[in-house]
Amino acid sequence: MQKNCFWLFTTLLFTILLNVRAAGQSQNITLSGKDLTLKQVFMAIEKQTGYVLLSKKNIFDQAKKVSFSVSGMPLRDFLNLVLKDQPLEYVIEGKTILVSRKEQAGASPGPTESTPSSVKIRIVDSLGDPLEGASVLLNARRAGFTDGSGMFTVSANEGDVVVVSFVGYETRKVALTAAQIGNAFVNISLRQSIDNLRDVNVVVNTGYQSLPKERATGSFGVVTAKQLAQVPVVSVLERLQGMVPGVDISTRTTAGQSRNGTVTIRGFSTIKSSYTVVDTVPLLVIDGFPSQMSIAKGALDYLNPDDIEQITFLKDAAAASIWGIQAANGVIVVTTKKGVRNARPTLGFTTTLGTSSKPGAKYGTLMNMKDYIAMEKELIDKGRLYDPTLTTSGFYPPNNSQAQAIYWSYKRGEITQDQLDQKLNALAAIDNGDQIAKYMLQSPSTQQYNLSISGGGTNSSYFISGYLYQDKRIYRSNTNKGYSLHAGGTSSFLDGLITASYDLTFGNTRDKINSAAVNAMSVGDRGMRPYDRLMDDSGHVVYYDEVLVPAIARNLESKGYLPFRYSPIDELNYSNTIQNNNNFNFNASITGKITPWLNAVVAGNISRTFTDRETYWEPDSYDARLMVNTATSLNATGGRVYGIPPGGKDQLGNTLGRGYGVRGLLNINKNWKNSHQLSMVIGSEIRENYNRSSGETRYGFDKTINAFSSVNPYVKYVDIYGTTQSGIGPTSQPVAEQTIRSMSYYGNGAYTFDNKYTVSGSARFDDQNLLGVERRKRAIPLWSSGVKWNIGREDFMKHIGWLDRLAFRFTYGFSGNAPQGYAPVTIVNLNRDYYTGLRTGNISTPAISNLAWEKTRMINYGMDFSLFKNRFSGSLEYYKKYTTDIIWQLPINGTYGFSTLAFNTANLHGSGIDIGLNVISLEAKDWKLSHYLNISYNTNIIRDLRFKKPTLSFDRETLYDGYPTDYLFSFKWAGLDSTGQSLIADPKIKDKTYTVLDYPYKDIRVYSGRTTSPWFGSFGNSLNYKGLELNVQFLYAFGGVFRKPSVSDVGYSNNNYVGRSGDLEHRWKKPGDEAFTNVPGLEFGPGTVYYTSLQRYTQSTYLIRSRSNIKLQQVMLSYPLPLRWAQKMGAKGVSLSAVARNLGMIWAANKEKMDPDYLYTTGNNYQIPPIVSYSFRVSMNF
Amino acid sequence: MYYHMHSRIITILLFAFSMASCRKYVEDVPVQGQRVLVYTDDYRALMDNRDKQEVGLGSAPQLSCDDLDMADTALASYFGSDAIRLAIYTWAKPFLQVDQQDYDWNYLYTAMYVYNVVINGVLDSKGGNMALKNDLLGEALIQRAFNYFILVNMYARQYDASTAAKDPGVPVLLKPELFVDLTRASVQATYDRILADIRQAIPLLPNVQQINSRAGKAAAYALLSKVYLNMRDFTNAAAYADSTLAISGSLYDYNTAVASTPYVFPTQFNDPQVILRKVPRQLSGTPQLSQSLLDLLGTKDLRYALFVRTGNTFYPAFSGMGFWSRDYYGDGSAVGLTVNETWLIKAECLARSGKKDEAIAMLNTLRKLRFRPADYADLTAATADDALRLVIDERRREFFGAGLRWFDQRRLDKDPLFAKPMVRILKGNTYTLAPGSNGFVFPLAPILISQNPEMKQNP
């Protein structure tokens, strides 16, 4: 059935295209009349075919009137007929009919009778740089295009009119003077059109259609290739940071992970929970088709930043609702560069080299070494730790730290007080921070190369590019590499009636992840204590024992166990995870012109992603040695019994994604008498996304010969501690598959009257297999509509000279979100009973048949303005968002078999402001100083009486009425009591405090604020002097709070590392200290509850800080080389740029001056501060 | 050209509407990557999921019955620190606060959802033969009947033929539906459903299953026997006890368990006495055994040797004796259907029908397996009532600690011979459970009633 259906669909599309072809041949004229002037005739042509006339003024003055009667006559035949006996000739260029006087007509209207002279015309921009490819018309006849030096030669007489035009510049008309003819040289400089500078002529792309921003009612944010090129860093996300109001981009990376980042458009439209699978990232659309890979999974890494022509952010419902249920989080539409017709081949080469300052391993305040050792002593004295060498045989305690071992040997009486002091002092003299930085970290660097060729003939164009990058990450032995290839082209047939275009991209990324550095710097088992050196003075690697005390380890090694020694430096060479991602994408479309204003488009897309991930623990790696050792026991005769075969371990994971989409749509672009403009698209599409993943683990692996041992996953074995383990566990993961299918119908249209009033509407009907609910609830139409009033164009505003543009917009609409994982069928998890060995099943999701989409209603008010000849321009927007029917679990009667069940129930109220302002404060011949300010505000709140309840649990999945989803509640701090333990105050009862022995649990916390800053944005300044441009960008955030990381749990096991947090130094030590410190003491034993004390302290109001800060994000310098210099290199254009990023915080509200985006966690021993990075870029065109 | 437009537009509309017929396109693939319950084998797997089905009774019966007595003050304060446990222990209603879940109830009903899924779906499942489907249907019916039997005996009044039609029982759900009326069926209707389910299941089941977590005919008969005993239909109870014992009749000799040191006790899977394996919901902390029980048990009894330990072996420690449950031998107490229980049902029915010697003979057969030969002595009874008392005492000795005693207390509350007030003293307060008291009926969790007010609370 599916197949039949699909073929029916495709066949019909082709039928349409055949019709298009027929239509193309009949650009016909039906007209009859007596004594018609040519003016009338051409008006009729324009009306019937949309072909417009371009000619000198009064060209028809001497033309004869005509009489005829034709019906369905082809245009060219008709023109031949009409102009047969006239002193005129014509050329059809695209959709323009150029009419000029016949040269041999002799009846020249020119004021002078002379033979034409050869005149050189040089076309330059306002800086004097030549413009290549500018179009030159002589007396309304196409003369040609300028060459690389902006030159073009014509034969002209005095008084002839030269019209020069170039994309993005104001068209100029010059009547040649006698002097110019005499000089045989004319210099024409074109001014960049003001319209083009600011978004008047900006075209927004919804993925389905392009329309001028001027006529768009919705909220769009546009970033052009030029803007992207100004920030020469590798990541597209970094380039976009701060550019668009309402778009929050975080490029913070996580330790041990590959490059990543997040984008949020106007906050969240849903609430995440552990039981719903719902996207919170915006939909990414590349060249009209949704990317199979989401932004969260790194889709933007596959894009060559130099291939991007434009990125459009669809922010409100009117902009995004064309994408239906996928659009609740906004849409990011990327269009890639295409070749240009009638252009000579251009070779572009760009390279970006980036480097960074040397990273250090210290950030924030740290305890000094003496205090750190004193704290370890205190833990031993307080009985928190035990002496691992005194334990009875058969139990192997984890090793302790160097300082602890020394102190224990003193306590055992093996060393004297003097020796103890001497040894501990020697230890305290070491601080391995520098070694960590030297051996485990490196300056992140990046190299990026891009090569492209583009061009086109009269009927086709092409664009081919290749891209290569290589990054070194801050943690040693971590790299990212990647490349992508892109080939695209268009060809048109039948006089441009049919246009076929295609795009083929292949991208590869290869990430190498090594966790040695992260492990060494964390407080986990493999962390280095701050006095643990990595390398000794003579340059030898220092080894440590971690899981066993040295004596036991050496003893076991003598019995044939593998070495237990551990060094982070060695591990840099081992246990790498290599992840290879490949992404292939093919788009093709055929556009047929049915009428001049109606196109039919059939487009298709195929994509494949395949990822293989391999983690190989070499036999010599610490991971593999430890794995084998801990699974090995000794039998009665002292022989080793292996639970896991000796050797390495190899973990393989594969994912495959494949998708296709087929779409048919009609594109209407009709303009009546320049006062009615209609652009519309209607269409339907089907899409399928299939994903599969699988994985396996091999033991006893040796990669040099690719040999491995077979294991039985369920054979019990005895481990090193004598405990019986239930087995290695499964060596293969189940194959997981998922198919998402959708089918949609959609329409989107905008009608503009008189260039002043625009109304728009959009509707989309989505049907998807995700929520397998009743179609009635599942396939609901999502729609939007909007109006725009270009009040600046009204006559009554015309007299206001300083007002260039003023428009008001209003939109309203719905978009949706489709959580996954619910179905009207019973879903089971299968397992195996450990005792009976029987297969067991569990109902993981009951058959639920009452779920539907989550719906987001959005209202947007917008104003666009431009004043004083664009010296001051901008847009202001205010929006409201109401998401309803968020799938949320509510309690149901346990009698039904479940005590909670998912319902379409929760609501989220959001609102916000987006402001973008541009000011040109100085504009002189060579100088231009401009500024921009982007202000975004976004907030959300839950208003739902069912969530009006006492505050108890603060996990992210507990909602409270009247609070935002990112709330932060804290204990009201009341200092320390005389035992050094925390005291908290009752938020309601005055002077009532609780000690750690009290356990109040309801409504005991106070609201501290939101964990994200509601106000954020950027402020930039740009100074341009003769093309040399200096840009300074600041990022700011206001509002929101964070908890200052402070003291971490000291644990009670020997290998539980304690962080070096500076606050710990100020801990309570003796009664009376509570007068001047708030850091709880290390108090254990009767009358103390250490964890409660610590937890109340770390979650107290005392540690709440404001997130507000201003950062100098980047300073950028760019310079396009003067042409003559470029030409010396044989290039048509060369530009250079340099950027420095992460230049630091220039203001922070919190008194510690911490960067809220780089909060170290208390779990870490060593912190990496944000480091300054520098990039240099050279871009050349040949 | 405009003339051609119409035909073109029609084509386009046709094309658009053709897609409407593609509805199947999005409906043919409901959920992939997840296992949809379709195959008979998966129904088998559902029925073999111990985690969700092994609980045969909740914590309330264990705490309410006279097996326990928190005489030790330390233990009393430990147990008393939990308001829920304290309420149950002192038969003080309500047990639960407004927003607290009754896990005893929820657990049994969670399993009920699975049974209803199987009962309503297994015959249409794919890939299994009819015998397997019938077997699964039969098992699910027995399991459902078992759960309703436990539920109605926890949350409703003891069956009394004269009032059963009016006494509220429990909501009887027969389909896996998530939004239906939860009005409580009467006790009679609940029992009727239990009996109907068992009768429907009997022809579908093999005599015994390969593993005793699955119900066979023996389980069906044993359950019938137990249900009829509760309904005081001693004739039927005896008849079905016979049917059960004809299939599974072997008793386990506890001398085997104490033959080695430390003692070993077979898990329920390996215990020939277990017909249908069920365990009680685990209590946190070990309660103290009551003096009346210890007196009845004596110290020579192997059941004392196996299942009683001094309080200092437990956490928290206490003085006196505690229940060394079967958990310490690797499995929970057998609170499902057992040969020894059916054996004693039969003995009780014999005693009640006046056949005192036959009843005592059965008792002695069992008791021989509960004492070391040196410690064993035959019991004798002068009258049928004596014999009945001995049977009831033996039941108490045979099943102590795990909560089964509570159901006997409820049942015997209808028996003038046995009905007597039960008294507990905790922290100086005296609590009494008088015969005929509403304390024999556990309250429903208030949250259930607030969520579905059609459910009525117990008095």
Explain what this protein looks like in three dimensions.
The complex is a heterodimer of chains A (1182) and B (459). Chain A is mainly beta. Chain A has a 22-stranded antiparallel barrel. Chain A has a five-stranded mixed β-sheet with strand order 15-20-21-18-19. In chain A, a hairpin with a 3-residue loop joins strand 23 and strand 24 (460-472). Chain A is elongated and about 120 Å long. In chain B, helix 9 (130-155) runs antiparallel to helix 10. Chain B is mainly α and 459 residues long. Chain B is globular and about 80 Å long. Strand 40 of chain A pairs antiparallel with strand 1 (35-36) of chain B, so a sheet runs across the interface.
Record the SSE blueprint.
The complex is a heterodimer of chains A (1182) and B (459).
Chain A: H1 2-25, E1 28-36, H2 38-49, E2 52-55, E3 66-74, H3 75-82, E4 88-93, E5 96-101, E6 117-125, E7 135-138, E8 141-145, E9 151-156, E10 161-165, E11 172-175, H4 178-183, E12 185-190, H5 194-197, E13 203-205, E14 210-212, E15 220-224, H6 225-229, H7 236-240, E16 247-250, E17 262-265, E18 283-286, E19 289-290, E20 308-314, H8 317-320, E21 331-336, E22 343-356, H9 369-381, H10 402-411, H11 417-428, H12 433-440, E23 445-456, E24 460-472, E25 479-493, E26 498-513, H13 516-521, H14 550-558, H15 568-571, E27 576-595, E28 598-617, H16 622-630, E29 632-634, E30 640-642, E31 648-672, E32 676-702, E33 707-709, E34 717-718, E35 724-725, E36 732-753, E37 757-768, H17 775-778, E38 781-789, H18 795-798, E39 803-817, E40 827-832, E41 839-845, E42 854-867, E43 872-891, E44 900-923, E45 927-941, E46 967-976, E47 982-985, E48 993-994, E49 1005-1010, E50 1015-1025, E51 1028-1038, E52 1041-1043, H19 1090-1098, E53 1104-1106, E54 1109-1120, H20 1123-1128, E55 1133-1141, E56 1145-1148, E57 1173-1181
Parallel strand pairs in A: 2-5, 6-12, 18-21
Antiparallel strand pairs in A: 1-3, 4-5, 6-9, 7-8, 7-10, 10-11, 13-14, 15-20, 16-17, 18-19, 20-21, 22-23, 22-57, 23-24, 24-25, 25-26, 26-27, 27-28, 28-31, 29-30, 31-32, 32-33, 32-36, 34-35, 36-37, 37-38, 38-39, 39-42, 40-41, 42-43, 43-44, 44-45, 45-50, 46-47, 46-49, 47-48, 50-51, 51-54, 52-53, 54-55, ...
Helix pairs in contact in A: 9-10, 10-11
Chain B: H1 2-18, H2 23-27, E1 35-36, H3 40-47, H4 50-53, E2 55-57, H5 59-64, H6 73-80, H7 83-89, H8 103-121, H9 130-155, H10 187-201, H11 217-230, H12 234-247, H13 254-257, E3 274-276, E4 279-280, H14 291-297, H15 302-307, E5 308-310, E6 321-323, E7 337-338, H16 339-352, H17 356-368, H18 384-399, H19 404-412, E8 422-426, E9 429-433, H20 446-451
Parallel strand pairs in B: 2-4
Antiparallel strand pairs in B: 3-7, 5-6, 8-9
Helix pairs in contact in B: 3-9, 8-9, 9-10, 9-11, 10-11, 11-12, 11-16, 12-16, 16-17, 16-18, 17-18
